[in-house]
Amino acid sequence: MGHGWEGAVLKLLRGKDFTLTVTGAEYVTEHYLRVHFTDGGLLAAAGTHPTMWVRVWFSRSGRPHQRAYTLVDPDPAAGTFSLEFALHPGAAGDWARSARPGDTIDATLQGTAFTAPDPLPAQLLVVGDTASLPAVNSLLDAFGPIPATVWLETRHASDERLAVRADPVRHDVRRVPRERAGARLVEEVGSALPGLVKDPSGVYVWIACDTVTTRALAARARSVLTAPRRQIHALGYWRP
Ligand SMILES: Cc1cc2nc3c(=O)[nH]c(=O)nc-3n(C[C@H](O)[C@H](O)[C@H](O)COP(=O)(O)OP(=O)(O)OC[C@H]3O[C@@H](n4cnc5c(N)ncnc54)[C@H](O)[C@@H]3O)c2cc1C
């Protein structure tokens, strides 16, 4: 594949390339689009893990741009998965809106990893937004029995309809409208943390929002919980 310098760098880092084929697409809301794929052998080669993501190569003005997207419902036996696009202006969403069955797109598998907390935590604190919702859902699937508080930052009224794979008994989902570039979310999470955590040694914190909000949330979590770094996973999913 000819992916310019970005591709060359990933190749040196031993990225593996696959061609995905679109089999269908559906709007979950007017701002959120799910696209279904056959995987070009990706899952057979790599297996699956929670929050697993791929670098998808989108073209804009004739130039390749790689963007990270999270696998939704990967099925290694069938060789299929979906990607969910939180829509906003950008190369990825433009491609997804026009995707039709039979279209192909290249993806590189490099960088995704997940280390399950060991021992398993007694409590999960998860903070995400619509870009990280697929990863949040994969975490809830993987850690189903563990009580969790999930904050989901929303941008559009229709985001209220996006499904969080939560169990109403064990999982407390708090939707927070995006205000002041993420500051409202940081305040709400920050003020709730001290009262929520019973035993800091048994908590696992997972944060994935925009880069600025993620940094602020991770700093709050570290100061409030004084938890070891390995108990706090924070990764910015997009640049505001
Ligand atoms: C590990 C990982 C997994 C990810 N998984 C997913 C996923 O499953 N689904 C998903 O939708 N996103 C996911 N993302 C985020 C996605 O990669 C970024 O949003 C990316 O910037 C989208 O590229 P683009 O070409 O659409 O926009 P870009 O060209 O990167 O940006 C164009 C404009 O859109 C703004 N923008 C970018 N992303 C967002 C956003 N989410 N909300 C509002 N404005 C935005 C930028 O600030 C910029 O102004 C993931 C990111 C990471 C790091």
Please tell me what the overall shape is.
Answer: globular
What is the β-strand count? 12
Biggest pleated sheet:
7 strands, antiparallel
Number of discrete domains:
2
What small ligands are held by the chains?
A: flavin-adenine dinucleotide
Output the radius of gyration: 18 Å
CATH topology name of the largest domain, in short, is Rossmann fold
The SSE string, one letter per element, is HEEHEEEEHEEHEEHEHE
**In what order do the strands lie side by side in the largest sheet?**
4-3-7-1-2-6-5
Overall average pLDDT: 92
> What structural class results from the helix and strand content?
alpha/beta
CATH hierarchy class name of the largest domain: Alpha Beta
Provide the β-strand percentage band: 35-45%
User: Level of helix content?
Assistant: 25-40%
CATH architecture of the largest domain: 3-Layer(aba) Sandwich
How far apart the termini lie comes to 30 Å
Question: What is the H level of CATH, i.e. the homologous superfamily of the largest domain?
Answer: Nucleotide-binding domain of ferredoxin-NADP reductase (FNR) module
Low-confidence stretches: none
Write a brief structural summary:
The chain is of the alpha/beta class. Helices cover 25% and strands 35% of the residues. It has 6 helices and 12 strands.
Plain-language structure description:
This protein folds into 2 domains: 4-109, Elongation Factor Tu (Ef-tu), domain 3, CATH 2.40.30; 123-234, Nucleotide-binding domain of ferredoxin-NADP reductase (FNR) module (Rossmann fold, 3-Layer(aba) Sandwich). 25% of the residues lie in helices and 35% in strands. The chain has helices at 4-12, 42-46, 91-98, 133-142, 183-196, 211-225, and strands at residues 16-29, 32-38, 53-60, 63-70, 72-75, 80-86, 104-109, 123-129, 148-154, 171-177, 203-208, 232-234. It has a 7-stranded antiparallel beta sheet with strand order 4-3-7-1-2-6-5. It has a 5-stranded parallel beta sheet with strand order 10-9-8-11-12, sandwiched between helices. Helix 5 (183-196) runs parallel beside helix 6 (211-225). The two termini are 30 Å apart. The mean pLDDT is 92. Bound molecules: flavin-adenine dinucleotide. Flavin-adenine dinucleotide (FAD) binds next to strand 4, strand 6 and helix 3.
